[in-house]
Amino acid sequence: MTPPVIRVRFAPSPSGLLHVGNARTALFNFLLARGQGGTFVLRVEDTDTERSSRASEDGIKDDLRWLGLQWDEGPDIGGPYPPYRQSERMERYRLAADRLIMAGRAYYCFCSGEQVEQERAAALAAGRPPRYSGRCRALDVAEVTRRRAAGEPAALRFAVPANRDVTFTDLVRGDVTFHTDVIGDPVIVRSGGGPAYNFAVVVDDAEMAISHVIRGEDHISNTPRQILIYEALDWVPPVFAHLSLVMGPDHAPLSKRHGATSVSEFRARGYLPEALVNYLALLGWSPGEGQELVAMADMARRFDLTRVSHSAAVFDVEKLAWVNRHYMKEADPDRIAALTLPWFVAAGMVGDGGAEALRAVQSVWPMAIGAVDRLEEVPARVAFVFGWDPVEARRLVAAEPDGTRVVAAFADAVGDQVLTRESFRAAATRAREVTGVKGRALFHPIRVALTGWDSGPELDLAVPAIDQVAAVLADVPNCATRARLSSQ
Ligand code: GLU
Q: Which of 41, 207, 272, 316 is positioned for an S-S bond with 9, CB 3.0–4.6 A?
C-alpha cells in the first residue's frame, strides 16, 4: 500500500503581525509535513481588502522564515497549484459559485445588512439560534432575475440542507457533530463580489489538494459549513484537526493585555528562533520520553497529531525563558554574539556595530551566559565594561573597611599590564600579600573600583573583559583597568 500523500497548508490573513498561536498552527502543519515527507503550502488569505496589506504578508513570511518554517509552495515561490494568494484566485471562486447556482445549492440574497442584523437580534431575544432565516431562498426565479437586472445588490448564499447531522472525525478532538438546524445559510459571495472565507477556503483546499487542515479551534464551527460545501461541489473533504487556543495565565485567549503576543515581539526581545519553536511545540504536544528540549528535525520525526492535546494550552513566559536559556548555552558563541550586537548598537555602547564591535561582544558574552533570559538583557548585564562611573566607584571603595588600601596595592600590582585571567589572579594575590587582606574584603573593593557595581559577574571574567574590550574598541571611554585604577 502506498502511504497517503500529506499536503498541509498555513493560511494566514495578512492583516497584522503573526500571533504566536498562529505560529504554533504553522509549526504543527510544518512538523507533520516534514515528518511524513509531505508538502507544506503557504496560502495568503487576503480577500478582506480593507484589512489586508502586503506589508503584513511580508512580515508574516519573514517571521515564518526566521522560525525556520520554510514552505514548499507559496505566493513567492509558486508551485503546482497557483496562484497562492486568494485575491488572485477570483476566477476560480466565480466558477465554483456558478456550479453551486446551477446545482440549486446557492441562491441570491437581497437582504440588507440591517435586515440581517434585526433578524439576528430578534432570534436572540426569542431564544432561538441567531441564524439567517433563509427568507431569500423562497424568491422565485423571475423576481431574482428582475431585481438583479435592475442592479440591486445581492450576496450569494449557500443553501444548507435542513434537518441533518454533519459529523467529522477531528484528529485532535475525535468525532464532532453539528446539526444543520443551527446553521444559517452562509454568505459565500459578498454583494461586492468577493468570496467569503468559508467558501474560498473550500475552493482553495480542494483545488490545492490539501489532505489535512490543521488550524485553530476558533474555526471548528466553520467546519460543518465547509463540509457541506465540499459535498455540494462533489469534492472529498480533507481530514481536520483543530488545535486548542493558546491562553494567557488567566485562561483567556492570549492577547495584548498579557504582554507580547506576536512572533516579531518575541524576536525583538531576544528569544532565539529555535527556542521559540521548541516552546511553541510544547503548547499542546509532548515529544514523549519525558523530553521537552527537542530540536526541529527530531520534533518532526516524532510529531503525531493524535498525540496533540485538546485542552487549552497556557503560554508560560517563565518556561519560554528556561527554554531560551538552554538554547543560548547550546548555540555557537559567535552566532550569539552576532545576534546580540544590534542591542549593543541600540544602547550606544559599540558605535555602529562594525567588526571590532562584534569582537567586543564576543569577549563579553561568556559573562552574560547563564545570567540572562534573552539577548536583549545582555548589554545591561555587561554595561560596566563599556562605561563606568568613577564617582560611584570611589564612593563604593570608600565604604569598604580596607577599600582604599586594597585598591592602591592592587593598582601597584597591575602596573601597566593588560590583564588576562591569569595576570588578574596574580595581581590579586600580590595585593593580598602586600595588605594581608583576603577573601571578600580583598575582592569586593577591587570589584567596586573596577566595575562601579556592588555585584555582577565573576571577577576573573569581568576584569580581563574590561581590557579586552578596550583593546578592540579603542574609543570606549574609561575602559581599561589601568585607567580606572589610576582615577581612584
Ligand atoms: N485565514 C484564516 C485565519 O487566519 C485561515 C483559517 C483556516 O486555516 O482555515 O484564521
A: 41
Cell of 59: 512580515
CA of 215 to the centre of ligand 1 (A): 7
Tell which atom from ligand 1 comes closest to the C-alpha of 205.
9
Q: Which of 15, 48, 60, 197 to mutate to test the pocket of ligand 1 (most atoms within 8 A of CB)?
A: 197
Q: How many whole angstroms separate alpha carbon 425 and alpha carbon 171? A: 62
Q: Are strands 187-189 and 155-158 parallel, antiparallel or unpaired?
A: antiparallel
Cα torsion through 480, 481, 487, 488, rounded to 10: 160
Q: Which residues line ligand 1 (CB under 6 A)?
A: 11-13, 45, 201, 215, 219
Ligand 1, residue 214: give the atom nearest the CA.
Answer: 8
- CB-CB contact of 449 with 485 (8 Å): yes
Q: What's the CA-to-centroid distance between 24 and ligand 1, angstroms? A: 13
List pLDDT tens digits, range 420-440: 999 999 999 999 999 999 999
Query: What are the catalytic residues?
Result: 256
Phi, psi of 21 (to 5 degrees): -65, -40
User: Among 243, 259, 281, where does a domain finish?
Assistant: 243
User: CA 319 to CA 246: how far, in whole Å?
Assistant: 14
CATH number at residue 402: 1.10.10.350
The two counts, helices (H) then strands (E), for the chain are 21, 11
DSSP 3-state assignment of 246?
A: strand
Q: Please report how many Cα atoms fall inside a 13 Å half-sphere around the Cα of residue 358, on the Cβ side.
A: 8
Write the pLDDT tens digit of every residue in 146-187.
Answer: 999 999 999 999 999 999 999 999 999 999 999 999 899 999
Same domain, 100 and 208: yes
Say yes or no to pLDDT of 392 above 90. Answer: yes
